[in-house]
Design a protein that fits this description.
This protein is an alpha/beta fold. It has 12 helices and 8 strands. It has one domain (5-211): TIM Barrel (Alpha-Beta Barrel), CATH 3.20.20.
Length: 289
């Protein structure tokens, strides 16, 4: 059977004054823990990681492990603009019990392939038996990973996979052809659970599934069954939810508020959904919750 993991990219809740909302974040974690998904991806893009300081990082990782690790995998994102900072955060997460990690490529400044290989080599050296996913997101990091570089990274101890965001399925297929068979590739495109699997991916890291996991579980089940009619119907539902919520953290926070789960907002400079957007959120919540 084709592997189709769904890892939930989890939002972080903040109070309107910008401070961390730990109770709200814990409520989101508990909601995700009930999703039936295979894992959670904590403090990635959806978690607004660039805005989180060291103390908050420790608090969020500790809460995530406490609330979710008994029922699902917890992958902690530790990527920073330098290997020094990324290793430092990984050590903190390790001290709290985390064993699976992801790291975005260096970002802000342009890195050469040599620089990126050195960055991930330093993380690999500190894994101490843990596992690491290369987080490839050129639209946000400014740094692209070639198939040949990913093949080299796949040979480093403990680097077991990659999370690929906003790149076409053709690129996923190129990565698949370049890396070992057991290397795991996740797409960051919420709606591409089935299509990405056909291109060689093993699943999706989905922010939208942190709100409404049911359509995603239905799509995975339909694909496992191989029923084309069920796949088409489930894909339509996933497309509907993704069209409304998308990768917009402000929409996710609003949906969580409408569902009575957490009353937090975004810390980063994102627009609050307008009345029409809220109406659409209410529609999909009623339809797919």
């Amino acid at each position: 059977m084709t592997r189709r993991d769904i890892l939930t990219a989890v939002p972080t809740s903040f109070h309107p004054d910008g401070t961390l909302d730990e109770p709200g974040s814990r409520a989101i974690f508990r909601h995700v823990a009930q999703s039936g998904n295979e894992g959670a991806f904590v403090l990635g893009t959806t978690g607004e990681f660039p805005s989180v300081d060291d103390t908050e990082f420790r608090t969020i990782v500790s809460a995530a492990l406490e609330e979710m690790s008994k029922v699902m995998r917890v992958v902690v994102h530790v990527g920073q603009s330098s290997a020094f900072e990324a290793v430092r955060r990984m050590r903190v997460a390790q001290s709290l019990g985390a064993t699976e990690f992801a790291a975005m490529t260096p970002y802000f400044l342009v890195s050469s392939e040599r620089g990126m290989f050195d960055y991930f080599s330093k993380l690999s050296d500190q894994l101490a038996g843990g596992e690491l996913y290369v987080y490839i997101y050129p639209a946000r990091s400014g740094n692209s990973v070639s198939a040949s570089l990913l093949a080299r990274l796949s040979g480093l101890p403990g680097i077991v996979g990659a999370k690929v965001s906003e790149l076409p399925l053709e690129t996923i297929a190129e990565y698949r052809a370049a890396v070992p068979e057991g290397f795991i590739i996740y797409t960051g495109a919420d709606r591409d659970l089935v299509n990405a699997a056909n291109a060689g991916a093993q699943g999706v890291v989905s922010g939208v599934s942190s709100i409404l996991p049911k359509p995603f579980r239905a799509l995975a089940a339909a694909a496992d069954e191989g029923n084309s009619e069920l796949i088409a119907a489930a894909q339509d539902d996933v497309d509907d939810v993704v069209r409304v919520i998308g990768g917009d953290m402000a929409s996710m926070k609003m949906a969580l508020r409408l569902m009575g789960i957490a009353d937090g907002v975004c810390r980063m400079a994102l627009d609050t959904p307008d009345a029409a957007a809220v109406s659409e959120l209410e529609r999909v919540i009623a339809a797919y919750r």
